[in-house]
Each structure stands twice: as C-alpha cells, then as structure tokens.
Write a structure and sequence with these properties.
149 residues, alpha/beta, Rossmann fold, five-stranded parallel beta sheet
Length: 149
C-alpha cells in the first residue's frame, strides 16, 4: 500500500475570510451573502440581535455586517454590547459595518462605536468596497472611510 502524503490527504476547506451578517430581514442577509460569494469567503447569518454575541464567540468573524433593524435589541444596542464585551476581554475585537435606514442615523452610529456605516439601499460593489477597507484596516486603528453613495 502506498504511503499517504500531504498532497493526497484531503483537507477541510476553511474560508480565509469569515463575515457575520446580522439582520432580521432575509433580503438583507441574502444581499450580503450574494455580495461575498467566492472562494476563500464564508458568510455566517443570524437573524436576532441577542444571537450576535454567541455567533461572534463561536465563529470569530473577520467582519460583522450589522443591520440597524434587527429584532429586540436593535443594531445600536448590539454594537454597544459587543464593544463592552470586547473591552472586558470576553470577545475578540471585530470590525462592525452598520447598515442604516437613513442618513440621519450616521450620528448615532458614531456613538455606537461602529467602524463604518452604509445607508440602505446599497449595491454589492459599495458593500464589498466598504468591507475591503475595514478588513484592510483591521488592527491598524485607521479612521473609517466615508462610504456615502
């Protein structure tokens, strides 16, 4: 019997980039998933605000795309909760891209300590560019870019 080599042993495919999308609306989750279909990318979905903390702990995503309109807690409360958990050392630091309903919500997004925000509706290209900036800035402490469309 021939020896087993590393080349002949199948290895599980683990995405190089994991994106967690948290949105109650299925159309938002589908739009995010469609924008990040490709090799080396994985998308994990949650539909309730109270599930985001556990999903971050379990999957340790490279980026969280969080919809303002998410059940019970709301996007602002989820972002603040995550930042408090990160500061206490109970969760890894994850860049947060908040999806807003209107321009006027930008001020509140800054107060929630998110890394960037987009106003809905947005196209896949704008979403990918915002995500790419945040993933490139991860760990560098760079200021968020203005992604107004």
């Amino acid at each position: 019997m021939p020896p087993v080599t590393a080349a002949s042993t199948p290895t599980p495919t683990v995405p190089a980039t994991t994106i967690l999308v948290a949105a109650e609306a299925q159309w938002v989750r589908e739009q995010v998933r469609a924008a990040f279909v490709g090799p080396g990318q994985g998308v994990v979905e949650v539909s309730r605000g109270q599930d985001v903390r556990a999903a971050v702990a379990e999957h340790e995503p490279d980026l969280l795309i969080l919809d303002l309109q998410i059940s019970n807690m709301g996007g602002f409360a989820v972002a603040i909760d995550l930042r408090l958990e990160e500061s206490a050392g109970r969760l890894p630091a994850v860049p947060i891209l908040l999806l807003l309903d209107r321009e006027a919500d930008r001020f509140l997004a800054k107060r929630a300590d998110v890394d960037d925000e987009l106003v809905k509706p947005f196209d896949a290209g704008t979403l990918r560019r915002a995500a790419k900036r945040l993933l490139a800035d991860e760990g560098e402490g760079a200021e968020p870019a203005d992604t107004r469309s």
